């Protein structure tokens, strides 16, 4: 970083000295020397400008990546310049350390949330089973108590079945296959999505400039289907529902696909929990849909984020790095 500061300072000093030299040469009417000095001055100014623009592009890259929670950020220097390469290495190392701390913290929080949800769900099923079995064991086996015993056994059966379904959902979550990546056109992906969701209030915008992603098509398509189904449910009570899917303009090394709706929105206190396995705000929800979406995006080296305002709707963003 110090080397870069010295180079910038030398550029500025050179521009200042050459400016004075050009003025003196022009005053002495030494036009050829003045012209050559001006060309050197111009070359130094252009080089300094390129150095500064490189910094601006890196800062924009950093800002965009942080805005979309891109923790896979890395920097590359387009110029073969030692000072630039040193600065880029420092930035990359700083981001690597930042990413490691964030991932460790997020992983710990995710485990804590998952354990809380698992404990809650298991206790909800186990507690009534223990209570009912204890009550039934205290009753005598006779014809008079048969209806009560039968009802109790049916209740135990229902709770046991519910617990089994919960375990099956957990197995689905932990046995997600590794993505088989192939080149996929974003335009074709969205065209196929239009066929699955022909409703007039669902607007799937095809990009003017197509992009090709190295992804597992079936997994990413399932992510988009899950998000659209959730959006349809969120807009169920709206008089004029509207859902939009589009590819957003972004840097050449990234791709953003957004799924937005004008539904009920998500309460602020639960926005950080919606990607936690088995957490759900729906009465009949399993709580694995969004967590599967998150897992699929993570396995593709991307991310999924949400922005939501209660009463105005939600916007889910898929980031492909």
Secondary-structure map with pairings?
Layout lengths: L1 H26 L3 H37 L14 H56 L8 H29 L7 E4 H11 L5 E3 L7 E4 L1 H18 L8 E6 L6 E7 L27 H11 L3 E7 L3 E8 L1
Parallel strand pairs: 2-4
Antiparallel strand pairs: 1-3, 4-5, 5-7, 6-7
Helix pairs in contact: 1-2, 1-3, 3-4, 6-7
Summarize the entry for a quick read.
59% of the residues lie in helices and 12% in strands. By secondary structure, the chain is α+β, with helices and mostly antiparallel strands.
Please describe what this structure looks like.
The chain is an alpha+beta fold and 321 residues long. Helices cover 59% and strands 12% of the residues. It contains seven helices and seven strands. The protein has helices spanning 2-27, 31-67, 82-137, 146-174, 186-196, 217-234, 289-299; strands at residues 182-185, 202-204, 212-215, 243-248, 255-261, 303-309, 313-320. Strands 2-4-5-7-6 form a five-stranded mixed sheet, covered by helices on one side. A hairpin with a 3-residue loop joins strand 6 (303-309) and strand 7. Helix 1 runs antiparallel to helix 2 and helix 6 runs antiparallel to helix 7. It is elongated. The mean pLDDT is 79.
């Amino acid at each position: 970083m110090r080397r870069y500061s010295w180079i910038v300072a030398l550029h500025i000093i050179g521009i200042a000295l050459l400016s004075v030299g050009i003025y003196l040469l022009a005053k002495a009417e030494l036009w050829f020397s003045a012209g050559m000095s001006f060309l050197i001055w111009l070359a130094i100014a252009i080089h300094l400008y390129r150095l500064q623009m490189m910094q601006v592009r890196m800062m924009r890259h950093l800002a965009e990546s942080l805005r979309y929670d891109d923790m896979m950020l890395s920097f590359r220097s387009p110029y073969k310049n030692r000072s630039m390469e040193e600065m880029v290495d420092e930035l990359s190392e700083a981001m690597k350390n930042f990413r490691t701390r964030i991932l460790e913290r997020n992983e710990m929080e995710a485990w804590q949330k998952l354990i809380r949800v698992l404990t809650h769900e298991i206790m909800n099923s186990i507690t009534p089973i223990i209570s009912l079995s204890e009550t039934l064991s205290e009753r005598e086996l006779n014809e008079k108590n048969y209806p009560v015993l039968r009802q109790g056994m049916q209740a135990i059966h229902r709770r046991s079945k519910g617990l089994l379904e919960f375990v099956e959902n957990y197995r689905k979550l932990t046995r997600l296959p590794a993505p088989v990546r192939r080149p996929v056109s974003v335009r074709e992906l969205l065209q196929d999505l239009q066929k699955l969701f022909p409703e007039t209030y669902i607007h799937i915008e095809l990009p003017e400039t197509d992009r090709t992603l190295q992804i597992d098509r079936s997994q990413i398509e399932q992510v988009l289907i899950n998000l659209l189904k959730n959006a349809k449910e969120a807009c169920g009570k709206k008089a004029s529902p509207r859902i939009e899917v589009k590819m957003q303009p972004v840097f050449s090394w990234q791709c953003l696909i957004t799924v937005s709706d004008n539904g009920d929105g998500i309460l602020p206190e639960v926005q950080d929990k919606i990607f936690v396995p088995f957490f759900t705000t729906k009465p009949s929800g399993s709580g694995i849909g969004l967590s599967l979406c998150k897992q699929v995006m993570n396995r593709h080296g991307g991310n999924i984020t949400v922005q939501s305002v209660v009463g105005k709707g939600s916007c889910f963003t898929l980031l492909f790095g």
